Amino acid sequence: MRVAVLGGDGYCGWATALYLSKRGHSVAIADNFARRQWDHELGVQTLTPIRPLSDRLNVWQDLTGETIELFVGDVTEYDFLSSVIQGFEPDAVVHFAEQRAAPYSMIDRKHAVFTQVNNVVGTLNLLFALREFQPDCHLVKLGTMGEYGTPNIDIEEGYITIEHNGRRDTVPYPKQPGSFYHLSKVHDSHNIMFACKVWGLRATDLNQGVVYGTTTDEVALSEALINRFDYDDVFGTVLNRFCVQAAIGYPLTVYGKGGQTRGFLDIRDTVRCVEIACLNPAARGECRVFNQFTEQFSVLDLAHMVQTAGEKLGLTVEVDHLPDPRVEAEEHYYNAKHSKLIELGLEPHLLSDSLLDSLMNVALKYRDRVDPAVMMPRINWRQPRNERRVQTSREPVPVVEASLQVVGGSGRKDNGNRGNSSNARSDLKGKLER
Ligand SMILES: NC(=O)c1ccc[n+]([C@@H]2O[C@H](COP(=O)([O-])OP(=O)(O)OC[C@H]3O[C@@H](n4cnc5c(N)ncnc54)[C@H](O)[C@@H]3O)[C@@H](O)[C@H]2O)c1
Predict the structure, then answer these.
(1) C-beta 182 within 6 A of ligand 1
(2) Confidence at residue 395, expressed as pLDDT on a 0 to 100 scale
(3) Does the C-beta of 97 come closer than 6 Å to ligand 1?
(4) Which residues are catalytic?
(5) pLDDT for residue 416
(6) What is the pLDDT at residue 401?
(7) Fewer CB near the last or first residue (10 Å), C or N of the chain?
């Protein structure tokens, strides 16, 4: 199968491109490296030292003999995107190429507008390019569980059958997104559904949960293939962040009560879910929705799991409750269906202590690259304008005894970072109260 991976230089896209290539599919990547530029803009860097994409692709070819084609460009530019579709003639397009951080979209007006233009226009261009040049191609689009919000009823997979005034219909499940980023995904979903209806395109909208982990079998083949591992307050996802915080003795940054419950999955399941979707395409005119996650956890559940795993490794892990910079329910009902991918053959990798150990080991291995200044949240949902990160002189990471056997090495309650955390915490509290 010929699969084009849009956004293949990113976290999910890179792991997916290698996985599909290893399984014998012809793979092409399209990316404009925007994600690397957002790191520069925010003054942050991935924990893991990722190589330039061309180096990674050469290493992949040397190790496996497989070639992954590369198209460098912006999917919001129609000429570029349509030339990729015409030149590569994919059977499936996996679309990851979006701005995916909720906090980034909430920085200010400019970032909200950028997020929605980048995401909505890119997807709209893709729908037109498929209609014009490859109408039988299957669109596999990454959406998010965050499109649904946290309703007080069970969340279905995309559609819900309701009875109203004695009549019955199956309609798209109501969406209550929690940021301008999540709203961009809802707009995408509507555009995709409409294009399937009017043009007979085939699409699968993968409403993905929060992804954790960094290693897949393919990425593990060489240090040069290493994937991104974001832990900063804007792009870092919660479990990856907690593991890095635990590894350097920084109190875990739980927002509010920590009862926020979401769906989660291992990156090894992300790549498999995408393959399953590609191998089982939607019918012409069909817009399917799969909820792509394997387990539900609250933020506080995760904090306690990381605390326990850290203690087993000899780390003392503190949990800090910060004022929630987001506008969201801190405690709520949450029960989301997620059976369609399992029915198609997904065998989930569930979160276990050993996975947490290995995540913390990754964090320890690269701890010299950890910048504690990017742990505290700086983007307040209530403000229309948030200050961009001020580059502070980088505090040295506390001297963590490199070996995990050293009890209390990095987890001292009164280490230097604690002071930093407390200052930033009262600063944040002040802003939220204003
Ligand atoms: N990471 C998660 O936990 C998670 C959870 C749910 C959904 N998703 C979705 O999965 C997708 C991938 O997420 P990720 O974590 O890999 O993000 P990422 O930021 O690591 O990767 C996105 C890639 O797309 C590229 N890109 C962005 N805009 C582009 C454009 N206009 N033209 C060309 N390339 C562009 C970036 O350069 C980057 O390489 C996103 O759509 C995201 O919404 C991710």
Answers:
(1) no
(2) 52
(3) yes
(4) 144, 181, 185
(5) 36
(6) 38
(7) C
Pairing of strands 138-144, 92-95: parallel
Structural domain boundaries, residue 328: 295-433
Q: Is residue 245 part of a domain?
A: no
**Hey, whose CA ends up nearest to atom 38 of ligand 1?**
10
In 3D, which of 377, 106, 400 has the Cα closest to residue 248?
400
Shared domain for 44 and 144, answered yes or no, is yes
SS3 137: coil
Beta carbons of 200 and 285 less than 8 angstroms apart: yes
Domain containing residue 180: CATH number: 3.40.50.720
Q: Which residue positions in the chain have pLDDT lower than 50?
A: 393, 396-421, 431-434
35 lines ligand 1 (CB under 6 A): yes
Residues paired with residue 3 on neighbouring β-strands, in sequence order: 27, 92
Residue 228 located in a structural domain: no
Name the helix (H) or strand (E) containing 257.
none
How remote is the CA of residue 332 from the centroid of ligand 1, in Å?
Answer: 28
Test site for ligand 1: of 9, 12, 269, most ligand atoms within 8 A of the Cβ: 12
Residues 11 and 123 both lie in one domain = yes
Mutate to test the pocket of ligand 1, among 84, 98, 267, 297 (most ligand atoms within 8 A of CB): 98
**132 and 182 share one domain:** yes
DSSP at 323: P
Give the atom of ligand 1 at the shortest distance from the alpha carbon of 211. 3
Closest residue by CA, ligand 1 atom 36 = 35
The atom number, within ligand 1, closest to the CA of 97 reads 24
CA-237 nearest atom, ligand 1: 3
Residue 122 forms part of a structural domain: yes
User: How far is Cα 417 from Cα 186, in angstroms, rounded to an integer?
Assistant: 39
Q: Give CA–CA dist 142/97, Å, rounded.
A: 9
